[in-house]
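Entry for the shared binder. Reason: the reviewer on the internal report wants the predicted structure included alongside the sequence.
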Amino acid sequence: MKIYEYEGKNLIELKEKAFTELNANEEELYVREIEEAGGFLKSKKYKLEIVTKDDVLKYIKNYIVDIVKYMGITVNIEAKKREKYVQINLFSENSSILIGKNGRTLEALQILIKSSLLNQTGFRINVIIDVEDYKEKINKNLEYNAKKIAYEVRKTGVDAKLDPMNSYERRIVHNAISKIKGVSTKSEGEEPNRYVVIRKEEEL
C-alpha cells in the first residue's frame, strides 16, 4: 500500500499541497504529522505521511478475497468509508462458516485485517467487519435484553450480573443502559471473564 510523504516548513501550506495533489480532503485520508526540530539557525520542519481511505478499502478487499479463497468460499464485499472507521459487510452462501461459533471466526478475521493494516502503514485503522449484518442483529438483541434486565433491576432493587462479554459488547451494554434513569452499570472481574453488573441507583 502506498504511503505518500510530504516535507516542508509550513504545516498549513504542506497540507494544502498534499490534499491538492491527492485530490482529496482530510476526511478521505489518514494523516500522520511529524514535527522535526530544527538545528542551529535552522527552523523546524514538518513531515506528513498519508494513506488514502480508497487504498485502504482496496487493500482490505484483496486481503479478504485471498483469505476466503483458501477457505473454499466466495464472497461479495460491501465497503463504506465512515468518518472514524471503515465498515465492511460480507455476503456469502457460506456465511455461517465466515461467522464461526459465537462469531469467533468473524472476530479473528477483523483482528487479522487490523494487524495487517498496522504492519503495512503504521496507522491504527478502525475496521468493522460484519457478515450479512450478523453483528448488528446481535448488538440489537444485546441492547434489548440489557434494557429488559435494567428495568427489572430498577423495579426490584436486586443487582443483576450479566454473562461475561468482550469489551465491545460491554460498551454496548453501558451505552444502552446509560439512557435509563434509576440504574447504573459497572464492569467487574478479570479478562476474559469480565462482566457487567446492573444496579439500582439510590434515590436522593
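Summary line for the report: The helical segments are 11-22, 53-70, 95-99, 104-121, 134-156, 167-177.
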